[in-house]
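User: ok so my PI wants both of these folded by tonight, can you help

Assistant: No problem, let's get them done. Here's the first:
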Amino acid sequence: MSEQEVFGPVVCIYDYEELDHAIERANRLPFAFQAAVFSDHQPTILRAYKRLDASAVMVNQHTAFRSDGMPFAGLKQSGLGVGGIHHSFRELQVEKMMVVHSPEL
């Protein structure tokens, strides 16, 4: 059974009889980053998307797929926060408020 989080070209493949059992098995892991579903059956795709504990679900695409504007986040014990260009810019900025009372305003 998968018990460690691996950042590399590794794929764990398990056989299953029922989709819900496969999803339950995947969701039992303490890590959750991305998941992939390979199917041409839309109800299967939507069921897996809704029930998988993953921050992104790739459909008919491997989990290494990424576009520059796409946010990525780890759930559970995976990662910290949300990455991606937009999210990284926000984290690097300091929000500051100024309150001014002036007769000129």
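One down. Here's the second:
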Amino acid sequence: MERYAGAARLLGPALLAAAIQLVGTAGAATHQLNARPLDAVAVALLLAGPVALLARYRFAVPTLVVTSVLLLGYLAGGYPFGPVVVSFVFALVSAVCLGHSRPAWVLAGLTYLGLIAVTWARSGPPSWWVLSGVAAWLLLILTLGELVRTRRERLVRERRSRAEAVERVATEERLRIARDLHDVLAHHVSLINVQAGTALHLLDEQPGLAREALTAIKASSKEVLVELRTMLGVLRRVDENLPRSPVIGLAGLDELAARVRGSGLAVAVRRTGEPRPLPSAVDTAAFRITQEALTNVHRHAGAATAAVLIEYAAAAVVVQVDDDGAGPGTAASADGDVAGAGNGIPGMRERAAALGGQLWVGPAPGGGFRVRAELPVPTPTGADPESAASSRGDGHP
């Protein structure tokens, strides 16, 4: 279908120009007794212009030059006046629409001067109304061509903008999934590593506790497999029954705390304010920040306890994790790397910034370490997150 449409766009104007020039000029010749009769040369000149239009897309300016020369050559030969300018008009509009505005305007001006010279040679000086009429006609044709070109360029820009917007959304989605994968793997693999070490240590002396550790390993590994399968399904887009993104939020906070307690870290969860449904992005970010903070405490802080605070404020939800350890800025990980040198804290900061929120990390007032995030939540009046964030100020709470 596209091939046929392209052929129609190419051949249609050429056939129309040939029909109008031949039939129209033959009809006009019957009223011009002083003109030279139409002969084979005249017919060839009238047909050569439409044939030249077949090359207007690839050679717009040469086609315009050819049609202009054929037009002036036909009139200079003394043949009858008529609609002999159709090929030139099509070539002129095509040149302007294809972006060759400057050559088109120059050739239109030269053709105008050529028409004046030919008319002067055939029947004396043309009248002012003839000169102004031809000039107005050429200006109208050029203006229409410029309008068409402008509209076409605007449509191209809009299509490009839409394509860039789609690509930008896809890139943001890939980054979000990458952050989710990091959080899931860091949390669950850390728990599995600690529980495996505990199980090996207690296997001979306290088999019951070793069994509990192995059970925790099984539960964590099952959950991480489920989440990875969900995320990979989103990436592959092969299973439309899977959710478009991992369905997880603060509703799973108690379960998260229970898993962390099973690894030996005491976790206390406290909620203040009036709990309410949160936008999916905010809910997921709050959970992931809490998860990453607890993972860092478990791996690096050397802490015995951690306190999680979820505060539902009027225009934001606050996530705060305190511990009584050294903090990721000074603690060393089990494998000897300096804690905090990975992607955990930058990932949390990116999640908060993506929603127009803020993240603070540093020593807690009473000792230990604190991670605090404020995530804007749109108000019922429809205020956007950025305005809600700016209304809170930029200082540390």
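Residues 237-246, 329-341, 381-397 have pLDDT under 50 and may be disordered. The longest helix spans residues 128-202. Good luck tonight!
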